[in-house]
Amino acid sequence: MKQTSYAAKTAKTAKSARTAAAGTPATASADAPALPAPGGPSGPRPRPASTVAERLLAGVRSQGVLAVLLSVVVVASFVYPTFATLDNARGVLVQASFLAVVALGMTLVIITGGIDLSVGSVFALGGVLAAWASPWGLLPALLVPLAACGAIGLLNGLLIARAGMAPFIVTLASLLGARGLLLALTDEGATTHLVPKGSAFAELGQGSAAGFGYPILIAVALFAAGGLVLQRTSFGQTLFAVGGSGDAATLMGLPVARAKVTVYVLSGLLAGFAGAINAARLSSGVTIIGTGMELDAIAAVVIGGTLLVGGAGSVTGTLWGVLLLAVIQNLINQIGSLNSSYQSVVSGGFLILVVVAQRYVSRTRKSL
Which residues cross the membrane (predicted)? Predict the structure, then answer.
């Protein structure tokens, strides 16, 4: 009996020691104060450090370009008095509106993990087709370029999404094809199609409302619609999912191929529409424009915080990126002693910095 009692007492002592070593008292003392549970009535649950860091990094990626833009505008306003004038601001916005519309379509494409190198040539082709059809009225001047440029986007999307071809190769071929078609329609640039003066189509590019040109208002409306589609619709969420992981999106039952085809069609439509509005503003279909515009659009999108690998981005960031490039170009013109080619140098420098920052952000997110 004593041996049994002693063994039981020994086992109880060992159990108490193991419990204490694990950090949990064997018995609760009546005098010991009760520790409040995390998230209980005594205070809020502490937020994980990784969540805070991820939100901070996302904010830097999406709004960092806005801080740079505001800083450049403030400094330029003090250094160059003519920069802060209303007329100069309107000029900057009008010049930026065409690139903004093209970059909006590019944003949707890059979010899905793709690229569209054809937008510059499609932009020029849309302008020539709009000027060619403008004598027949406003509707043909808009529908003809939209139909042709939308067809180019549809071809790109089908070859990429259905045939599995690389976006770089497909859109590079479209760039060459659209530029060749443009030269064929204008006898290799010898023929310039003019927009009738005083027509409704010309008014669309040259008119204004509330002191702002129609191209500015059109760009703002398109960006508002693009933001709503991207953030508030299932289609927008599908684009993020496709860009994040196409295989995972397929397993989830999402229409991956249809989403890719749609974004390339939209990219072609927006590039053609921007070209048409530009032709209305210039009163002619200029054949030499649009060269390198695809690179400016990509730079604006990436500077705005959209990841080149896809899966993250916003149309708001793209808008800030477009405005930053436009402000830099205007500042170079304000200086006067610098050639406009310096804009490419500055844009390239910004692009390198942003890509390096994106790589750092991606590595930081993986380590959290």
Answer: 65-86, 92-110, 117-136, 142-161, 168-186, 212-231, 263-283, 295-328, 340-361
Asked whether the whole model's pTM tops 0.90, one would answer no
Number of Cβ within 10 Å of residue 9's Cβ equals 10
C-alpha 205: how far from chain center: 25
Q: 170-208 burial, b if ≥16 CB within 10 A, otherwise e? A: bbebbbebbbebbbebbeeeeeebebeeebebbebbbee
Nearest to 178 by CA among 270, 268, 280: 268
d(CA 90, CA 277): 17
Express each pLDDT in 63-100 by its tens digit. 677 888 888 889 888 888 888 888 888 989 999 999 99
Digit-coded pLDDT (tens) for 167-214: 999 999 999 999 999 888 888 777 888 888 888 999 998 988 888 899
d(CA 185, CA 188): 8
What size, in residues, is the chain?
368
- Nearest Cα residue to 103 out of 281, 222, 201, 240: 222
Predicted pLDDT of residue 292: 85
**SS3 label, residue 41:** coil
pLDDT at 362: 58
pLDDT of residue 102: 96
* Cβ neighbours for 303, distance < 8 A, ≥ 6 positions apart: 65, 321, 324, 325, 350, 351, 354
Ranges of each domain in the chain: 63-367
Rounded CA separation 302/61 (Å)? 10
Residues 6+ apart with CB under 8 A from 223: 100, 104, 315, 316, 319
Task: Name the stretches of the chain with pLDDT < 70.
Answer: 1-63, 336-343, 347, 350, 354-355, 357-368
Tokens of 285: 């279909």
What is the β-pairing status of strands 208-209 and 212-213?
A: antiparallel
